[in-house]
Amino acid sequence: MVFAFILKRNAKSELKAAFSLFSIFSRNESTILAKEENAKISECCIRASSEQHFQSVKQSLLLYEHFVDESEETNLLQEIETHLKRVRYESTHWDDAILNYRETEIWRWNQQNKQIIERIRKLAFSKEVKSIDFVHVLDLAENGVIKPHIDSVRFCGRIIAGLSLLSPSIMRLVHENNKNFVIDVLLKRRSLYIMKDSIRYDFTHQILGNDESFFNGVKVPKTRRISLICRCEPQ
Fold first, then answer.
1. Residue 225's closest CA among 95, 123, 98?
2. 3-state SS of 8-54?
3. For the chain, N or C: smaller number of CB within 10 Å?
């Protein structure tokens, strides 16, 4: 895996300067077997502005490839569509954080999908952490983006878990007080990410639009993307 400085939004002119600021670190592609659900933490889909930066947050940013299989994804999408079919796409969000999207909250799932949601919660939240009862479902159109933001502490606690369906995308994290501290995450289709503690509170997160959607120099086309987001109650 390559760790390299990632550009800020619309800052392509800083490319040469960026690479002069940081060395490029190489690391063998690795997975770490997790105890819960035999899931595997994948580091190969995470790029940071330096090795030191990566090491400082690796316990706060977890990524699990292939968290659900194709049939599980299909079952989730079928149930989600019944909730979204009467919801119109919006061009802007009430807090200006999202463009070209629609969203809903799902409290009850069929038995098969309920088991998937419980797997997410079991992996993301310890027993002393109370998860919010509903799941936030965000449907991002192909031309949709999520702008840099930090989720309000009024609405959720220290852990956020998101399951990516339909399309891969690039999530960019930027430290609020150090714009040179940047992490890009390749969210593959059917992968699960978990953000907690420092990553959750100190970094903005965003989903890049197609004009910026690159990972290790390779274009990652984002089509319509649905994410299931599980949060815990605010402390």
1. 98
2. CCCCHHHHHHHHHHCCCEECCCCEEECCHHHCEEECCCEEECCHHHH
3. C
Question: SS3 for 233?
Answer: coil
Spatial separation of the C-alpha atoms in residues 161 and 171, rounded to whole Å: 13
**CA triplet 228, 122, 229: central angle to 5 degrees?**
15
Angle of helix 70-84 relative to helix 111-124, nearest 10 degrees, comes to 110
Of 70, 67, 66, 63, nearest to 1 (Cα)?
63
Q: What is the value of pTM for the model shown?
A: 0.83
Q: How far is CA 133 from the centre of its chain?
A: 20
Tell me the chain's radius of gyration from C-alpha atoms.
17
Q: What is the phi/psi pair of residue 10, to 5°?
A: 55, 40
Residue 17: count of CB within 10 angstroms of its CB: 10
61-94 pLDDT per residue, tens = 999 999 999 999 999 999 999 999 999 999 876 6
φ, ψ (nearest 5 deg) of residue 190: 75, 15
- Tens digit of each residue's pLDDT (9 = 90 or more) over 97-112: 899 999 999 999 999 9
DSSP single-letter state for residue 158: S
Residue 207: CB atoms within 10 A of its CB come to 23
Domain range list for the chain: 2-231
In this structure, what are the phi and psi dihedrals at residue 211, rounded to the nearest 5 degrees? -70, -20
Measured CA distances, 64 to 30, 36, 133, 171, 188 (Å) = 12, 11, 23, 14, 9
